[in-house]
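Write out the 3D structure for:
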Amino acid sequence: MKTYPKESTPPINTSRRRFLRRAGVSAASVGLLATAACHKGEQIRVKPNKIDIGKGDMSVLNYAYALEQLEAGFYTQLIQTPYSDITADELALFTSIRDHEILHREFFKAALGANAIPTLVTDFTTINFSDKISVLNAAKNFEDIGVLAYVGVSNQIQNKDYLTITGKIASVEARHAALLSNMITPGSFSGTDQVDDIGLNKFLSISDVLYRTNGFLKTKVSAIYYDYQV
């Protein structure tokens, strides 16, 4: 009987401090998040099965944290219940992507500290994990949305350190997206659904992204300040 690796917490060498240092972000600047919640109108609002991210830099990081929770949850499910004809190479690729998403998720969680939104409950019942095409299409969808989301939110970020780290994470998400697109259709790694006619990545607003992702979440995410409410 085959066994597959399960999610685990990041090892000590990927701790918050080392992650920040290697990412080029100062721990002191990330510590500014501790006072961000005190700014009027920036508080997150939590209700049963519903969260609003508020506004300001903290809301943007919580928005990213929500997306990384979704992606990490998807790949964790995929590794635990892979499609029957998955190859060793495919399993290795998905495991690597899963580990990236877990690191991204844990980074945002640690950086936000007490200001982080709660753990979200995912809902992947519309995805057939026993079917390779269903899995690949879902994975591509999540990665494409992730890239579009990071690009779209960049003009909302005030702190340059936060902009730096989200840019670095977005570049990894783009590598995932290109790989998955090419696995589905060889040569489609920079398709017109993602890259415009002058070679720039397209983007989505916070409201557009949440509209596309809330269907995969039992814990719904709102962004009233950015004109999206559930």
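Confidence is low (pLDDT under 50) at residues 9-14, 32-41.
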